[in-house]
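Q: Hi! Curious about what Acyl-CoA carboxylase subunit epsilon looks like structurally. Here's the sequence.
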Amino acid sequence: MSQLNHLKIVRGDASPEEIAALIVALTAATPSHAEAVRAGEAWRDPVRSMRQGRSWRAGPGAWRASARRD
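A: Let's find out. The predicted structure is below.
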């Protein structure tokens, strides 16, 4: 299996310890696959479409008020 270079140091002379620290920092900053999937599918969550304790009223400005997040 061939190895692909995903990280290239273009300036300086980094030690193996510095490269390892950089990889650890980048890995920690990257969301896990499960977190990314949850964030991407949040729009399908049926709870989003519920009233969340607010009552709906007819009248002027009702559409605007229904979309407002207090």
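A: A fun detail: The radius of gyration is 24 Å.
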